[in-house]
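Continuing the series of single-chain predictions for the mutant panel. This is the parent chain; the variants come on the following pages.
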Amino acid sequence: MRFRFLRRRATRGPELAAPLSDVAHQTNVNLPGQTEILAVPASRVALLWTNPLGRTATRAAQLLLVLALVSVAVFGLSQVSLAVLPLLIALILSSALWPLVRLARKVMSAMLAAWTVFLGSLVVIGGVGTGIVFAVRAEWSGLVDQAVEGFKQLQGMAKDLPLQISQQQIDDGVTAVTDFLTSSQFGAGALTGLSAAGSFFTGLVLLLVILFFFLKDGDRIWAFFLSWIPRHHEAKWRASGTRTVETLGGYIRGTAIIALVDAAGIGIALWILQVPLALPLAVIVFVTSFIPMVGATFAGIIATLVALVANGPVVALIVLGVVILVNQLEGNFLQPVVMAHALNLHALVILLALTIGTVLAGLVGAVLSVPLTAVVWSIVKIWTGRDTEAIEAIKARTKH
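Parent structure:
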């Protein structure tokens, strides 16, 4: 960069009275009595930030600032996860149950509608859990015997492998596992598990309380929040809230339908093939199907292993074929039809969301990461003008 050095004497007063327009382009201006002035054209300074490198630096600084704010927010929320996770789960469940609440409010008060939907949901979940417990208790002894027999078969197969495994090595492995289970380290882990169980039940109680109040006063809570929003942003905020409830509710209801189809298909196959614990395995398929892409596959592997141990390799291969068929039906037919509007995300985005959610919050993060990502994307489309349909619908509803 070229600089111009101007030397002016303090005694030359008329020269210092030059028009301001002559020195407007200078970044440093001398006071009377100074001997030198270093003048740098302002246009050249601005050029530092308007050329491609300057624009890249500006965007990089903005990105670093956003990442820092997000990191601080994630760290702060992780410190109060006992309150944040129940709040998020209650928000998702209330979004899925909200259509039932609106339907019940047509014939009863808001309080009675909330209690009806809330208690009805608990009865359904409790009934399913009770059925699982009784099914496991009825078939547990037979499954243990079959598992022992299957373990012996695996030992025999291990001896025929190219990599020889002696009986002494197997016995040493069993002894090591037994010593760990009876060690003080395992006892300390058990105490940690008791502490985690206490936190789980505390979070469960908080979840139920928040869920009830969302079912009872969810619309009033949202209206109170909107009362603080400026008028010129109210339409976008209202559309964001509507899209959030629609996305979360549609995701949970759609996933429940898909999980029910997966569980019914695999469960009926296990029952026909007389695989033990067919009902509990079907419930495992239903629950794990709420983790996209990997949940149903994981449950199918468990069902195949149980069939291998209990019924032999032929039945296990049939179960594996049924699992593959059900997964293909889900991916090629059910997902596009049922989840077309609720989960409009690329498979790579889903995989990245699952990974990040699992790292940050374990199994709960794996379940919540995908619907929350779908909500964020829906809100981004509204605020960037890509979802004008939602904003126009909210404006038309507000006029009427």
